[in-house]
Every structure is written in structure tokens, then in C-alpha cells.
Specification:
Rossmann fold, OB fold (Dihydrolipoamide Acetyltransferase, E2P), eight-stranded mixed beta sheet, single chain, 2 domains, seven-stranded mixed beta sheet, alpha/beta
């Protein structure tokens, strides 16, 4: 992949862009295998899943800078001023086409870009997600509600210009390197349908979803194959998000319980689950619980005797991993199988070391993030 921004030295986010992709993938495979070798000697590795080298990102997270008349959408330079990256080759084509339209909308709605050096302005970030059907979720990260009325009044023009399914404002008033704040104000729509392997996941503005749709689809297929090979009658899907793993493994005769701290994500999982039942696509019983995964597991294990131990647990934690408390529960629980999806092989290795009776059986690298050192690793553990 050639990139004019990289070659001009204005953006070096793709650290390994000059390395041929096959070499990047081999280096990633060697890195994750070496990291797990001590805790899982002799681990069987399946072939890695490669990504497209360009146009693989379904989400654009753009810092907004510059002026109202000439906003930049991209990153901050060393001087704290904006570097425009509207033509970034990582983005889906639909995102690249949408960004200039959104830049013009910023001008028409008089959304003053935030200046980091001066600590003035309103619009900090623009976050745009594209579904497989080409629909968009557009989020404006604002410092306050000062521009909200202007944004609302101009929104019909944006809806005419772009296939926007969801539009919202996120409020992030603090002068910190934090992408977004906790408060979200819906302006239009409610959820973005993200079709993955014939399953329509429903993304709300603050829902997590992998930025590489094609590799995410392979991740869910691979995990479902691991689960089906074991064929457990019961599954807990911890850190389930909008239900990607749990919905992919739901089967007649197999119960699935998904646990996620975000109530919005759980509501999305319930909607998709109901749609699948109505369509006849699955008859497997599912339950979706809004709770912290670790706290729910520990409380359920000690107080709810009516809920039997599952035969398989799926965990898909953030970069910090599952931590010692959940790892300790899994180690002592007698659960026969665990499928662990990790975006940080270092915390994965730490967690595996805390569960010595659950032996890693197979592993696979899935390259969600070409040209960087980031990775996804899927591991099957059996007692």
C-alpha cells in the first residue's frame, strides 16, 4: 500500500507500512507465538488470518482542528495543530467519500473546531462508522451544548447528502487526551445495522465493534467452529458487547448467557437475538445481562445455585485482560473449556499463567490492524 501522507512524513501511524505485508504478518505471528511459548509450550497454531492491506477500516476517528471555514479532519501534529487526513487509504471508500461532505457540514453548522493550544472551540472529534450496507453512524464530539441548536437545524441537509442511519452528539468537556465522554445525545436514528455473517448486529453510538469487519467476521466464524467442535450445551459469553460471539454460537439445544457492562450493548444483543428467533435463523435460548463480567460471575457462582456451571466460557476482554479474580474463578470452577479472544498477547499470557489447569489447545492470529503492531489472538483452552 502506498500512502502520500506517510511518504510526506505528515502521518506515521502505520508504523510498518514500508514492510511488505507478508513480512508484517510473519513478524506478528512470531511475536505472539514467542510470548505464549513459556505458558503454552507446544501450542498448535492454525494459519493466521490476513487482512486486506487497504480500505479495511469501517470507522474513522478524526481529530477536528483548523477553522470553521477550513476545518481539518485527521490527527494532531507535534505542534498541537491539525493534520488533514481525509483521503486516508485505510478507510472504507464510503468513509472517504463522506468526510469532505462532513467537513462542509461543519462549516455550514458553524461548529468551531477545538484548538488544543488555545483551549477554545467546540468540535473536538468526528467519529464515523460505515456498515456493510453503506449506511453511516456520525458522532460529533463537542465540548458543550453551545452548538447543539445549530447542529440540529442543519441536520436535515446532512441527511439528504449522506446515508446517515444514526447521528449523535457526545459531550467531552475536559481538556484531556480522551476521545469521548460518557454523555450521548441522539439526534437521529437509534442503531446502525452491522451485518456480519448474515447476522445483523445493532450498534448504538457508544457500542464497541471491531474496526475491521471482514476479519471480525472470520473471528466469529473461527470461534463458532471451536465451540461447535466441543458442542457444549451451555455457554457464557463474558464481555459480550453487542453479542457477536454469543449470537454466532447460539444453537438449538445450547443455552447462551451474555454479560456486558454496557446496558446499550445488551439491549442491542437482545434486539438481534429476537430478530433471529422471529426469522427462524436460530432457536437456541439466549439471555443477556447488563453487569460487570467479573462481578456477575463471582456473585452468580456464590449465590445463584439454580444457575449451573456452563460447559464453555467465551471471554473477549479489553486490553487489560480478564485479571486475577476472573482467571482465579475459571481456574477453580471446573469449566471444561474456555475460548479466549485477546487483543493484547502480554495480558493474555499473564491470564493463561493464572489458569494452569486449563491447557491451551490451539491458537490463531487474526490481523485486524495491518501496518501496526496490534493483533488479535483466539485461543481454545481445555481442562
Amino acid at each position: 500500500m502506498r500512502c502520500s501522507y506517510f511518504e510526506a512524513g505528515v502521518c506515521r501511524s502505520c508504523t510498518f507500512l514500508e514492510t511488505p505485508y507478508a513480512e508484517q504478518l510473519a513478524a506478528k505471528q512470531a511475536r505472539v507465538a514467542a510470548t505464549l511459548a513459556e505458558v503454552a509450550p507446544g501450542l498448535a497454531w492454525r494459519d493466521p488470518v490476513a487482512s486486506a492491506e487497504s480500505r479495511f477500516r469501517n470507522k474513522a476517528k478524526m481529530v477536528v482542528s483548523g477553522t470553521v471555514d477550513d476545518p481539518t479532519l485527521g490527527i494532531l501534529g507535534p505542534d498541537g495543530r491539525g493534520v488533514d487526513l481525509q483521503a486516508c487509504g485505510l478507510h472504507h471508500v464510503g468513509l472517504e467519500r463522506a468526510l469532505p461532505v462532513l467537513a462542509r457540514f461543519i462549516t455550514s453548522a458553524w461548529l468551531t473546531p477545538y484548538s488544543v493550544p488555545a483551549r477554545t472551540g467546540e468540535l473536538k472529534h468526528l467519529i464515523v462508522t460505515e456498515s456493510a450496507d453503506g449506511e453511516l453512524m456520525v458522532r460529533f464530539v463537542l465540548r458543550s451544548t453551545e452548538a447543539l441548536a445549530r447542529l440540529r437545524s442543519r441536520l436535515p441537509g446532512l441527511l439528504d447528502a449522506l446515508p446517515v442511519a444514526v447521528a449523535s452528539v457526545n459531550l467531552q468537556p475536559e481538556h484531556k487526551a480522551i476521545l469521548e465522554g460518557p454523555e450521548e445525545i441522539l439526534l437521529y436514528g437509534e442503531t446502525l445495522r452491522m451485518r456480519v455473517n448474515e447476522i445483523d448486529l445493532h450498534l448504538r453510538p457508544q457500542s464497541f465493534f471491531q474496526t475491521n469487519t471482514e476479519v471480525a467476521a472470520e473471528l466469529y466464524r473461527s470461534a463458532a467452529a471451536l465451540v461447535d467442535a466441543v458442542d457444549p450445551p451451555s455457554v457464557w459469553d463474558l464481555y459480550c458487547g453487542v453479542g457477536g460471539f454469543g449470537l454466532h454460537v447460539a444453537r438449538p439445544g445450547r443455552s447462551v448467557v451474555g454479560v456486558e457492562v454496557s446496558e446499550q450493548a445488551i439491549e442491542s444483543a437482545r434486539v438481534t437475538s429476537a430478530e433471529l428467533v422471529w426469522s427462524g435463523a436460530t432457536a437456541g435460548p439466549t439471555e443477556w445481562v447488563a453487569a460487570d463480567a467479573t462481578e456477575w460471575v463471582l456473585a452468580t457462582g456464590s449465590t445463584d445455585r439454580s444457575r449451573s456451571r456452563p460447559e464453555l466460557v467465551i471471554v473477549n476482554p479489553p486490553r487489560r485482560g480478564i485479571g486475577p479474580r476472573l482467571a482465579g474463578w475459571l481456574e477453580d470452577s471446573g469449566v471444561p473449556h474456555v475460548v479466549y479472544s485477546s487483543c493484547n498477547v502480554d495480558t493474555l499470557a499473564r491470564d493463561l499463567a493464572a489458569m494452569p489447569s486449563l491447557k491451551p489447545v490451539s491458537a490463531q492470529l487474526l490481523d485486524m490492524f495491518p501496518h501496526t503492531g496490534h493483533h488479535e489472538v483466539l485461543v481454545l483452552l481445555s481442562r
